[in-house]
Amino acid sequence: MKACIIYNQGLGKDYVLYQVVQDFIDQGKFLSIDLIPKSNEDFTTYQDQEGVQVLGLDFDPAFILFYDKDLVLARALKNSGYRLFNPLEAIALCDDKIKSYQALEGLPLPRTIYGPKRYHPYENPDFAQRVLDILGPKVIVKESTGSFGQQVHLAQGLDQLVSLLKDLSCRSYLIQEYIEESMGRDLRVVLVGDQVLGGMERSNQGDFRANIALGGQGRAVSLSPEEIALAKACHRRLGLFFSGVDLLYSKEGPLVCEVNSNLSYLGFSKATDLPVGKIILESILKEINKPL
Q1: CA pair distance 287, 266, nearest whole angstrom
Q2: Mapped to the 3 state alphabet, what secondary structure does 246-281 carry?
Q3: Is the dihedral of CA 260, 199, 109, 131 positive or negative?
Q4: Are residues 61 and 167 located together in one domain of the fold?
Q5: Domain boundary pick from 125, 150, 178
Q6: pLDDT at 12 over 90
Q7: Which of 3, 147, 277, 291 has its CA 20 to 30 A from that of 251?
């Protein structure tokens, strides 16, 4: 069986996420899947009077493992009749933290303020002060799109927040309360289909962000019924086939940090001894072979 895995050309083959791509390719061999890697820039998404088409796919894949966030390409492939994992709609929700949080309304989330739309950079100390009055003297500022924790910032006090929000002008962002109990640590829950594979606590002694890509370490942990229920609710609400749900620790119980459609699972596999790539591919095979 031939299938395709799509990754982002801008990250390149030397970046950590390509190690996940390679693991999928290796695991596919055990399942008789010839998983052919292609970057998003190997394709041309072309539109004329007859509609949108994708140029560059020189074989007919049984499915496409879409490990990227190029939504224009994903939509064109879906409209061309290809089966994408994760689904386009789920990737789109996970790629935008604002859309994610709004879709998860009613679930336990950190208190959140959405940044106002701006057309040019300027300082607004009045808005920044209102944020601090509501959320407290320390806040977490997140750009709505980003990966590996690189677009997540900590602001302490009015001056830092004013300066940071000026730098983020003309970009979409949100501001959340600082959860002291989760300083430098969080909980990654990995799900495939309706199955929870397990949990990994990530911790980072040198950063407020727990991401393994930023130096964090992972260890397998048992999940509470509350953590399992919350992870499943996020996974189902966003329509994911596989996911990594990141939860924060708080005095009130687990809170949703974010949900990942293109999870970098190698740290989880190392901590738990679970072949996540193989499990995902086995689940995809079952899904595409279901009777209509």
Answers
A1: 23
A2: EEECCCCCCEEEEEECCCCCHHHHHHHCCCHHHHHH
A3: negative
A4: no
A5: 178
A6: no
A7: 147
Spatial contact of 243 and 263, defined as CB atoms under 8 Å apart: yes
C-alpha span between 188 and 172 (Å, rounded): 25
CATH code for the domain of 202: 3.30.470.20
- Supply the pTM of this predicted model: 0.91
Judge if 193 and 101 occupy the same domain: yes
Spatial CB neighbours of 184, under 8 Å, sequence gap ≥ 6: 203, 204, 205, 206, 207, 208, 209, 210, 216
The domain in which residue 199 lies consists of 94-106+181-288
User: Are 61 and 33 within 8 A, CB to CB?
Assistant: no
Q: Rounded CA gap, 193 and 55, in Å?
A: 31
DSSP letter (8 states) at residue 159: H
pLDDT in tens, 148-175: 667 889 999 999 999 999 988 888 999 9
Give the pLDDT confidence of 76-134 residue by residue, as tens digits: 999 999 999 999 999 999 999 999 999 999 999 999 999 998 889 889 999 999 999 99
Which distant-in-sequence residues (6+ apart) come within 8 Å of 246 by Cβ? 186, 187, 188, 189, 256, 257, 258, 259, 260
Residues 43, 73 within the same domain: yes
Q: Are 162 and 200 in contact (CB under 8 A)?
A: no
Partners of residue 199 on adjacent β-strands: 189, 221
Buried b (16+ CB within 10 A) or exposed e, 103-125: bbeeebbbebbebeebeeeeeee
Relative to beta strand 255-260, strand 242-248 is antiparallel
